[in-house]
Amino acid sequence: MIKVQTGQIIEYYSNTCRVVATDGIFKCRIQGRMDLVVGDFVKIKPTQDSGDCDAMITERLDRNTALYKSKDRKTKAIAANITHLGILVTVNPKTSLEFIDKWIVIALKSGIQPFIIFNKIDMLENGAYIVLKDLYTDLEVSSFAISAKYQTNLNELISYLANQTSIFVGNSGSGKSTLTSALTGTEILSRELSNNQGVHTTSVSTLYQVANNMKVIDSPGVRDIGIEHLNHAEILAGFKEINDFASKCVFPKCGHQEDDGCAVMQALKHSHIKESRYNNFINLNAAVRS
């Protein structure tokens, strides 16, 4: 092992990390107090006095992107250097349109490319998701129709995620763990407890690197993400079509509801903005205001 090298955190514990670097994978202690999460790039150096650890993390490099969760208006990073965020959409359990739009807002605010995965297509009638697919395609959000369980149509998704670092979000039962297992070749159990309190996995976040330089971050922390740390302008930026019309409103601080001269309301009236998108925009704004 060279004296100092750069690596990426693939697992993070309370005071140690596993880091993949040029010379292999190392268990590392952390020098001082650093805000570290899975996906962070760090500098490490060998150490002789850290117990069962091979190296010491001495520095965290700048993050390109990060996902944050918020509580009581305070934010905490849960994963870093993500390029793509896949939103799993299923009929059973039913994924709400507000769930989709919330995650599009979060991804775009974080500088991450959102995309949609229609999972469990084996349970759908042909074309059952086409209207929804067309809605988000018009908004320049890519989508894929797959069955993670039967590994149907995965090749196009794998090609899309080549050389990227992705993370998946979805409701309990949407197939997130099944999809991650299929893409990484590693059996990942659902972190949700069954009704009979069956076996469940640890809450450790993990980064998997597989063929075609595809990286997948599996993190239980994404279940708890809210939008309380966002402001109204950041939410508006996540609704591209509404944002475009908002710039044409007569008043710069238009509430985009019943205001005179509101271009957004006019666009809604003439179906240039979908009602579901407008309603979700209002609901997410209200959540930030509360």
TrEMBL record:
PROSITE patterns: ENGC_GTPASE (PS50936). InterPro entries: NA-bd_OB-fold, P-loop_NTPase, Ribosome_biogen_GTPase_RsgA, RsgA_GTPase_dom. Signal peptide: none annotated. SUPFAM superfamilies: Nucleic acid-binding proteins, P-loop containing nucleoside triphosphate hydrolases. It comes from the Bacteria. CDD domains: YjeQ_EngC (cd01854). GO terms for molecular function: GTP binding; GTPase activity. Pfam families: RsgA_GTPase. Residues 80-223 form the EngC GTPase domain. PANTHER family: SMALL RIBOSOMAL SUBUNIT BIOGENESIS GTPASE RSGA, SMALL RIBOSOMAL SUBUNIT BIOGENESIS GTPASE RSGA 1, MITOCHONDRIAL-RELATED. This is EngC GTPase domain-containing protein.
